[in-house]
Design goal:
By secondary structure, the chain is of the alpha/beta class. About 40% of the residues lie in helices and about 20% in strands. It is built from ten helices and ten strands. The strands form two sheets. A seven-stranded mixed β-sheet has the order 6-2-1-7-8-10-9, with helices on both faces. A hairpin with a 7-residue loop joins β4 and β5. The radius of gyration is 21 Å and the shape is globular. The chain starts with about 20 loop residues before the first helix and ends with a strand.
């Protein structure tokens, strides 16, 4: 395993961070909502300023207005802005009751002859995808399955594809999975681990903006979309749930975060347990 590092350009010592004015904050907030569907309230102004300050320093820009214009005109810069302003909190087997329900109640009901497909629709750096892959490998009893992962951030997808994680993250993985599916880094990679290649080959990652156009996708037995819709307003959530419903096979499951609810969204789902919904 090898990690490639790049030298960062030395900051200009004469550069002074510009203030983020209300009009500029509103413009940035509108761009983020327009492209990613993410709603930011007034309390996020300081966060936006601090997270974008380093980028403005790199570009040696003197105002947030100039940066807004760059984002509007440059798709790559828009992606960088989204990467900087979105939170990618995740870890292996996060909210473990979902994985317990998947292995005990969902997987045993799925046909053994067909391909089982699961989609982690906001997979961040990949820990959820590999947690799902470990679960499917143990509990399906066959190799006819696939786990897809997607995220709006290309930066986190690069991490997910490399599948190299700090050794501290290993404590989140059950020991039986750790010994079977994970490889400890040596020499230059000491202090990290990676995912075993046979398991990694059962996964695939896509860059998808959930509120933008989607590539042609499979139909899934289970979709995980956890702790994402809390950043969307009600209408954005309703539209997204309708699109997710179309990606599920009959009787498929949509699993959201424990802090999320689809009560006001309906969308043709029945609540099986809190945060676990089945397509009617």
């Amino acid at each position: 395993m090898y990690l490639i590092t790049q030298k960062k350009p030395a900051p200009n010592p004469a550069w002074v961070p510009p203030p983020l004015h209300e009009k500029e904050f509103g413009r940035l907030r509108g761009l983020l909502f327009q492209w990613a569907g993410i709603s930011m309230n007034d309390s996020k102004k300081a966060l936006v300023s601090s997270r974008l300050e380093t980028r403005l320093r790199q570009l040696e820009m003197r105002s947030f207005s100039d940066y807004c214009q760059r984002v509007e005109e440059n798709d790559d810069e828009r992606q960088i802005m989204v990467d900087l302003l979105t939170t990618n909190e995740t870890h292996f087997f996060r909210e473990p009751r979902h994985f317990e329900y998947l292995s005990a109640h969902i997987l045993p009901t799925l046909p053994r002859s067909g391909n089982i497909k699961v989609w982690s629709a906001a997979c961040s750096t990949g820990e959820e995808v590999y947690s799902l892959a470990m679960t499917l490998s143990e509990h399906t009893g066959h190799e006819n399955w696939k786990v897809h992962g997607s995220d709006i951030s290309r930066r986190v997808l690069d991490v997910a594809n490399k599948a190299v994680y700090p050794m501290a993250s290993a404590s989140e993985i059950p020991h039986r999975y750790l010994s079977r599916f994970c490889l400890k880094g040596v020499r230059s990679q000491q202090g990290s681990f990676t995912i075993e290649q046979n398991l990694k080959r059962k996964t695939e990652f896509f860059h998808i903006n959930l509120n933008g156009s989607w590539p042609e996708l499979d139909k899934y037995h289970v979709i995980f979309l956890r702790n994402v819709m809390i950043y969307f307003d009600t209408e954005t959530r309703r539209k997204l749930v309708a699109r997710l419903r179309n990606q599920l096979l009959p009787g498929g499951y949509l699993i959201v975060g424990h802090a999320e609810s689809m009560t006001v969204l309906d969308g043709g789902f029945s609540c099986i347990r809190p945060s676990i919904y089945q397509l009617r």
